[in-house]
Structures are given as structure tokens and as C-alpha cells.
Design goal:
mainly alpha; elongated
Length: about 150
């Protein structure tokens, strides 16, 4: 049975990969910021099912580990990724424009930092459902498997 460290590592890799794929067309620095955000968010999202249903035994898998609810939830979230990223990226662009329009060094720094943070968050958006799916996929590959809807079904 994959443990916490495995789920965290695979979630981070999966989240980073999902963020990188969604960052296509972004300038390299901003794509890097989004990939970093995907890795960080993926590490935590990759362990979410076990936070909801702690892995005290191989019988702990219930609805949060189940195939149908996970697939449905991930589908709903993935449909929202583009809109959420567009919103975060446009807000980041506004921050960068504010930084370019001022001569105050502190204000420039704050606006650039805020813009980069918004790109990090844009990378977290696709990473969360992708890393959650990676957790369920790893657990599905174990001898115990995962339920379809809930334990026993």
C-alpha cells in the first residue's frame, strides 16, 4: 500500500506536470512559477484522500477513495481550470502593469510579488484534481483496490 511519502511525491510530480501542461504559451518565468505552484499544491492534494479517510488499514478506503465520485469531481474541476487560470493570469497582468507604472521601488516589488503569487496559484488550479487522481490511481493498483462508489459497492 503506498504510504504518505509516496502519495506526496507522486502528487507533487503529477501536479507539477499538470501545471506545466496548462502553462503552455506563458513566458518561461511565469510557466516556472505555475509549475512550482503545481508541485507544491500537488504534494498536498496527493494526500487529501487519506486526510479525509485516514489510512489506518487497507480497509479505510470509502467514498473519498472511490472511483465514481473521484472521476466526477475531477471532471467538474478540470472543466473550471481554464476560466480560473484566465482570471488569475489577468489579475497578475494587472499587478505587473501597476508595477511598470510606478517609480516607487517598494510598490513595484509588492506588485511583482503579487503577480508571481497569482501565477503560482494559477499553477495550483490544475494540480489539485490531478494530484488527487494520482492518489486514487496509486491505491487502485494495490491488491485491495478501491471501491466504485463506496465501501462494499
Amino acid at each position: 500500500m503506498p504510504g504518505y511519502a509516496t502519495h506526496k511525491a507522486v502528487g507533487g510530480l503529477t501536479g507539477g506536470a499538470a501545471a506545466l501542461v496548462c502553462a503552455q504559451g506563458q513566458p518561461p518565468l511565469l510557466a516556472l512559477a505555475e509549475t512550482v505552484g503545481g508541485c507544491i499544491a500537488g504534494q498536498y492534494a496527493g494526500t487529501l484522500p487519506d486526510m479525509f479517510e485516514p489510512g489506518i488499514s487497507s480497509h479505510h478506503r470509502n467514498t473519498c477513495h472511490a472511483l465514481a465520485p473521484t472521476a466526477y469531481g475531477a471532471t467538474l474541476l478540470f472543466r473550471q481550470v481554464g476560466d480560473a487560470q484566465d482570471t488569475l493570469r489577468s489579475q497578475a497582468h494587472a499587478c505587473f502593469q501597476l508595477a511598470a507604472g510606478t517609480n516607487d521601488g517598494v510598490q513595484q516589488f509588492v506588485n511583482i510579488a503579487a503577480g508571481l503569487l497569482l501565477h503560482v496559484l494559477a499553477g495550483a488550479v490544475p494540480a489539485i484534481p490531478a494530484a488527487y487522481l494520482s492518489h486514487v490511481a496509486l491505491d487502485a493498483a494495490t491488491p485491495r483496490g478501491i471501491p466504485f462508489i463506496t465501501r462494499g459497492f
